[in-house]
């Protein structure tokens, strides 16, 4: 992820002062550690792309030094710490953002605008999934599997957080309560057992606006690479977005349905800034990340950017994740 961040930073006009690696030999620039880089007085903003357990200590150190932060998600490994990070950023008056980058697809912005405009009517149902297969086999392993490094949740904290943020962003409603189940499919990985973090999660929920919903997340679904799917149904229309086909927004009505294709000539003013390429020239993940970083840097210059995901949004995602784990452990509904 460091490489992805660095690419977008350069495209946004930043000068990269240095890179602090996991050990001195992997660092680049005059500073041998993250602490030295943060305390150097040479940087305006730091990108934190470390394993999850290091997000909080490095972020809090940066904020205390007056340095703005872009921190990978999950913001922290528990909701209390994430809330502390958001509070410290607010107290310091510093830009602090989280790369919930799927917000930056032009067709997601179009969907959000149409919901806010009232096209779908009253939202009644929100559902979808986020499916991957990169941890399908018992020989597949990663630091995220270890709760000491990744936190008590893996699949939901890693990708469920993206889905929930997108659902709340598009609908304008919060997930109010959840009923969840978690499952471990591969109980041993690369010789390590038992595996303590979940492979699959199913969640029922209700929103603050009274809509019902469900989401399934998995890192063990064969053939699914990065399939984030969101559908919003209302009393007048339905809208559906598939991250693996991001050029389209499905619009459904009782009288018929259509696939709205990204075209700068027909997009709403809210979506147009996130459609830099002509119609027919496919946009994707890199463009979303570029837009997120560019908007974060614009905020650093004192400019307003609508829909920029801040530490408050990161803390919000952590609260939902904690509620999912609590519900799965108790077998009862949990408030978010």
TrEMBL record:
The lineage of its organism: Bacteria, Bacillati, Actinomycetota, Actinomycetes, Streptosporangiales. The keyword Oxidoreductase applies. InterPro entries: Gfo/Idh/MocA-like_OxRdtase_N, Gfo/Idh/MocA_oxidrdct_glycsds, GFO_IDH_MocA-like_dom, NAD(P)-bd_dom_sf. Keywords: Oxidoreductase. It comes from Nonomuraea dietziae. Transmembrane segments: none annotated. GO terms for molecular function: nucleotide binding; oxidoreductase activity. Residues 108-239 form the GFO/IDH/MocA-like oxidoreductase domain. This is Putative dehydrogenase. Residues 32-98 form the Gfo/Idh/MocA-like oxidoreductase N-terminal domain. It comes from the Bacteria.
């Amino acid at each position: 992820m460091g490489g992805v961040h660095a690419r977008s930073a350069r495209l946004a006009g930043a000068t990269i002062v240095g890179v602090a690696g996991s050990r001195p030999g992997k660092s680049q620039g005059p500073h041998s550690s993250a602490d030295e880089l943060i305390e150097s007085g040479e940087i305006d903003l730091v990108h934190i792309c470390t394993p999850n357990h290091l997000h909080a200590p490095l972020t809090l150190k940066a904020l205390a030094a007056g340095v703005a932060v872009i921190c990978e998600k999950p913001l922290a490994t528990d909701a209390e710490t994430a809330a502390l990070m958001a509070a410290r950023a607010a107290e310091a008056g510093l830009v602090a953002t989280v790369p919930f980058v799927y917000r930056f697809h032009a067709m997601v912005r179009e969907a959000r605008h149409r919901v806010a405009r009232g096209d779908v009517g009253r939202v009644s149902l929100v559902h979808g999934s986020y499916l991957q297969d990169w941890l399908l086999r018992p020989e597949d392993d990663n630091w995220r599997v270890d709760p000491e490094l990744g936190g008590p949740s893996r699949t939901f904290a890693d990708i469920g957080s993206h889905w929930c943020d997108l659902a709340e962003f598009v609908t304008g409603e919060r997930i109010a309560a959840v009923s969840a189940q978690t499952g471990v499919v591969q109980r041993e990985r690369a010789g390590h057992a038992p595996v303590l973090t979940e492979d699959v999660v199913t969640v029922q929920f209700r929103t603050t606006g009274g809509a019902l919903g469900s989401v399934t997340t998995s890192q063990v679904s064969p053939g699914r690479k990065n399939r984030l799917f969101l559908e919003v149904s209302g009393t007048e229309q339905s809208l559906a977005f598939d991250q693996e086909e991001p050029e389209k927004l499905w619009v459904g009505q009782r009288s018929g349905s259509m696939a709205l294709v990204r075209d700068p000539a027909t997009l709403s003013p809210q979506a147009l800034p996130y459609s830099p390429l002509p119609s027919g020239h496919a946009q994707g993940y890199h463009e979303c990340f570029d837009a997120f970083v560019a908007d974060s840097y614009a905020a650093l210059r004192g400019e307003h950017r609508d829909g920029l995901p801040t530490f408050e949004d990161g803390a919000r995602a952590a609260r939902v994740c904690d509620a999912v784990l609590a519900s799965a452990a108790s077998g009862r509904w949990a408030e978010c």
